[in-house]
Design goal:
The protein has 164 residues and is mainly alpha-helical. The chain contains 8 helices and no strands.
């Protein structure tokens, strides 16, 4: 019987090697990920590292209020953390993507255990969630992946703390 910590470590290994093309930058993500998400995150990290709050992005459509766009990530704490550690580049945004896939699997593992599944079934469900059609099909939309990573934790908290 494996402990939960060993299962979580195994989920991390599976996420890194399951998405090896992205993890080892053999083939980085493309389309909206590079055209929209990466420039936003890069601009935000440059502003934060220079002690400027990113209110306005002047480089797109004669300027847009980037702090009002929920897809920009201005209000996401991990964006600030990565920005303060050195900023965004293709490596850090790929790391963020893999981290959220791992987080999604971990959350689904604990959600499955809350519903009473055995440990190995919860593990299989977590791996299935990490490689589900939604996660793979929306790999270019990091905002969907971030949402999919946090939904199992929210549902788990709801199920544990509410009378059903």
């Amino acid at each position: 019987n494996l402990s939960d910590l060993k299962i979580i470590f195994l989920l991390l290994i599976i996420a890194v090697f399951g998405y090896y093309n992205i993890s080892f930058l053999i083939h980085p993500l493309k389309w909206d990920f590079i055209d929209q998400a990466y420039p936003y995150r890069y601009f935000i990290s440059e502003c934060i590292s220079n002690n400027i709050f990113p209110y306005w992005l002047p480089f797109q459509h004669l300027g847009i209020p980037v702090c009002a766009d929920p897809q920009s990530g201005v209000w996401y704490p991990l964006t600030w953390f990565i920005s303060l550690l050195g900023g965004y580049n293709i490596y850090t945004i790929s790391f963020e993507y893999i981290f959220h896939i791992f987080l999604a699997g971990t959350g689904f593992y604990f959600l499955s255990k809350t519903f009473g599944f055995k440990q190995w079934i919860a593990f299989v469900l977590a791996v299935s969630y990490m490689f589900s059609g939604f996660i793979v099909g929306n790999s270019q939309h990091i905002y969907y992946i971030i949402s999919a990573a946090w939904v199992p934790f929210v549902l788990n908290n709801y199920v544990e703390n509410c009378q059903l």
